[in-house]
Design a protein that fits this description.
Length: about 600
């Protein structure tokens, strides 16, 4: 065991090094599974209290190691020496008008103990008898914790005392107390009084972390009504959400839930999203959190054969809030996010023993629902209503899907091609009519694709490849079309790979290689570079004129110099080759020089 009396080194640097080494070694001892006897545990407690007093830089570490020691060996707090050192370190040294955050951590742990240590001073015993979640006590705790020097000292870390407070709230709520009551107390006594006015970076960072933790607790409450009330309170009082959103649950956490719990969670999140209004201060960040949580919940893999009804419900929810949201949900960014989630969920068709659940929504049902909303004027975009080209292309898709029984034998597995046609239907409905690529898809690609869907064969594969390459190589598209375009492009690439083994004609290979040849054709770029260099040169220099003559056409050089010397020009005809022309030009140059 380390003896505190032996640490009396002449230099402060060496002393701090030994103190740090002893502190980390003691931390390893405390966290190891090997048990300590009571005497060693008491000495370790005294030494950690000494480290807390002696070294300011490691106070958070030394104090939390001490609390870990108390957690493993509760009998230490009944030893007189350990309690004296603890009292001196946390409450008496140095004399301040407030307690440090580690002292508040110590008080919280003493408050939770069933019996108070007898050696504590009467004033500390009085503090221990208080309830930390009571508004008046919480106000005093916040007054101590928001001291500038204490906030700056641990920046940008969130001090463990805040985690202890949140854990205490959750523990009380688990015992049956109201989460709304505790969070309301926390917001009105900790957040609201200290968030007003200008503040420095450490305090702003602390508020950001606190509000994030607060939102994490609020949005994961089991009671939907209580969660809604807490979020509404946080929106109005704490300003939760303008740029701060809670962290979504990780996939590892969600994998622990059974399918029934996932079903309940997804439906609860959907109802929570529907209850949000644009007038709420934190509507954007709350919607962002819900969509992230929904996406993670839908990514949880399940065994093949297990029915997951919540996937279809989520697909219709994304369809509605992406393409025809209600008036209370006018957030365009979140609507585009819903379009992306819908396209991702609806277009997933991979099969495996353990995969994310797939949507089983009928494609015709999606088109019917969209057309109904479009007739009522509820959709975000009305491209197909205002432009006949797009409407005609959509009608071709609807007719092709209605005659799906007569489709080409190449599409014996119709799942992917029907998804592709439905996504094209939605893209035509919301695309930009002034976009040349969108017009090309409406007037050329869709008619050819529907024709190939019904009458395609291996002999006409070049038509399919032409269609797919046009879709894949689309250059520009509006922001809300990009999610649909990415899924359409993925399916098109899949079909190109699928039918690659059937390529027999040179036309199909030419179609495939055309964009590659265009991409690697550097002649035009090299000529453009030479033109830029030529335009930027100084024409007064003789050397630059020589470079221009070398870059010019030999026939033009000969013509220019023949005007300066008629004798040399008469000896050279226009039909002579490059060598004779250049030779004549050299002779004329020499004659001019003489």
């Amino acid at each position: 065991m380390v003896d505190t009396e032996d640490i009396n080194d002449p230099t402060r640097g060496e002393r701090n090094q030994r103190l740090n080494a002893a502190l980390f070694a003691l931390g390893a001892v405390i966290c190891s599974p090997k048990e300590l006897n009571l005497e060693d545990a008491v000495k370790a407690s005294c030494f950690l209290s000494f480290c807390y007093v002696e070294q300011k830089a490691t106070r958070v570490l030394s104090a939390n190691l001490l609390f870990r020691l108390w957690q493993r060996y509760p009998q230490v707090l009944h030893a007189e020496e350990a309690v004296e050192w603890c009292t001196f370190a946390f409450f008496y040294y140095p004399k301040l008008e407030y307690f440090r955050p580690e002292a508040l951590q110590c008080l919280l742990r003493l408050m939770e103990m069933p019996t108070t240590p007898k050696q504590l001073p009467p004033s500390i015993v009085e503090y221990v008898s208080l309830d930390p979640l009571k508004p008046s006590v919480m106000e005093q705790l916040a007054n101590a914790l928001f001291r500038n020097e204490q906030v700056t000292q641990v920046h940008p870390m969130l001090h463990p005392v805040w985690k202890d407070l949140f854990d205490l709230m959750l523990k009380r709520c688990g015992a049956g107390e109201s989460l709304q009551e505790h969070l309301t107390t926390f917001v009105h006594t900790v957040i609201v009084p200290y968030r007003r006015g200008s503040s420095d970076v450490p305090r702003r960072t602390l508020f950001q972390n606190l509000v994030m933790e607060l939102g994490q607790i609020a949005v994961q409450s089991a009671d939907h009504r209580e969660r809604t009330q807490v979020l509404e309170m946080a929106n109005k009082a704490a300003g939760y959400g303008k740029k701060i959103s809670a962290k979504a649950s990780t996939l590892a956490e969600l994998k622990q839930l059974p399918v029934s719990a996932l079903q309940e969670k997804v439906m609860d999140l959907i109802s929570q999203y529907k209850s949000l209004k644009d007038s709420d201060l934190a509507s954007h960040s709350n919607r962002k959190w819900i969509l992230r949580e929904l996406r993670n919940s839908l990514l949880v893999p399940v065994r093949e054969g297990i029915s997951c009804d919540y996937v279809n419900d989520a697909a219709f929810f994304f369809l509605r809030y992406g393409f025809f949201p209600p008036k209370s949900a006018g957030d365009q960014k979140m609507a585009n996010h819903c379009i992306y989630l819908f396209a991702e969920l609806f277009s997933f068709t991979l099969k495996g023993d353990l995969m994310r659940p797939k949507s089983t929504v009928n494609p015709r049902e999606i088109m019917t629902l969209y057309l109904e909303k479009e007739e009522k004027g509820l959709t975000r975009y009305k491209t197909a209503v205002d432009h006949k080209k797009f409407k005609k292309a959509r009608n071709l898709i609807v007719d092709a899907l209605e005659n799906s029984a007569k489709r080409s034998v190449l599409f014996y597995d119709k799942e992917d091609i029907e998804i592709l046609l439905v996504l094209l239907f939605l893209m035509l409905s919301v695309d930009d009519a002034s976009n040349a690529d969108a017009t090309l898809i409406a007037t050329s690609v869709v008619p050819d694709l529907t024709h190939f869907f019904l009458n395609g064969s291996l002999d006409s594969l070049d038509m399919l490849y032409d269609i797919m390459m046009t879709i894949i190589l689309r250059k520009t598209s509006p922001l809300h079309v990009l999610p649909l375009q990415s899924c359409i492009r993925r399916i098109a690439i899949g079909y190109m790979q699928k039918f690659a083994k059937f390529i027999r004609s040179e036309e199909t290979v030419t179609i495939l290689l055309a964009p590659l040849k265009e991409a690697f054709n550097t002649d035009s770029r090299e000529l453009a570079r030479l033109d830029r260099v030529k335009n930027g040169e100084n024409e007064d220099s003789d050397s630059e004129e020589d470079d221009q003559d070398q870059r010019a056409d030999p026939d033009e050089v000969a013509d220019d110099e023949s005007q300066g010397d008629s004798e040399s020009s008469s000896d050279n005809d226009d039909d002579e080759d490059d060598e004779s022309t250049s030779a004549g030009s050299e002779q004329s140059a020499e004659g001019g020089g003489l």
